[in-house]
Amino acid sequence: MTLRRDALAALAADRGAFADRLAALADEHDLDAASLPTEPDHPADRTEREARLVDRVRALDDAPIGLTLTGPAYRDTPIVYVNRWFREWTGYGMDELRDRNPRLFQGPDADPDARADFREALSTWSTVTVELRNRRRDGAPFANRVTLRPLFGDAGTVTHWVAAQEPEPIEAPEPEPIEEPEPDERLDGGGE
Predict the structure, then answer these.
(1) What is the pLDDT of residues 113-160, one digit of tens each?
(2) Residue 138 carries which DSSP code?
(3) CB 82 within 8 A of CB 91
(4) What does the CA dihedral 9, 14, 15, 19 come to, rounded to 10 degrees?
(5) Which sequence spans correspond to the domains of the chain?
(6) What is the DSSP letter of 56?
(7) CB contact set of 102 (below 8 Å; sequence gap of 6+)
(8) What pTM did the predictor assign?
(9) CATH level 3 topology of 3-169
């Protein structure tokens, strides 16, 4: 399995299975001490379910993959938590991301087909994987393979979404060498 697939499966696991999935994930992908945070860090208005989901993503703060937890689509999928690894990759602080829509990573050259795939997944409560061209806080572009997965609550409705991101830098093309013009013999006094 891939880290992306395994991380998403662990985050979506039921209460009893999460710790085992997390341990297996850490073992299989050689992650350092992935474990549930011991110090809860939650705003007072966060629900118990949301706090539990944030703690799960925090357990993977240093996994070499981006993980973004958002609220429901009917609220414009506001960012609830982004793991530390992806925050460092993009250059954003958690305070800059909280309650914003993940579209903030999009550049002006966003692929309309990928955006349509996201909209369809959000409206049909389904998982989707797309290739995006995103931007860091400093404007630097990066390629991003994103898998978006719904997280269902006890009532069977989507309460949150989680995205796994695999970013890669986009190398700037090498500039074309500037060719020096051939010296004109008439200008340098040659020929007569």
Answers:
(1) 999 999 999 999 999 999 999 999 999 999 999 999 999 998 999 999
(2) T
(3) no
(4) -30
(5) 3-169
(6) H
(7) 68, 70, 77, 79, 163
(8) 0.83
(9) Beta-Lactamase (3.30.450)
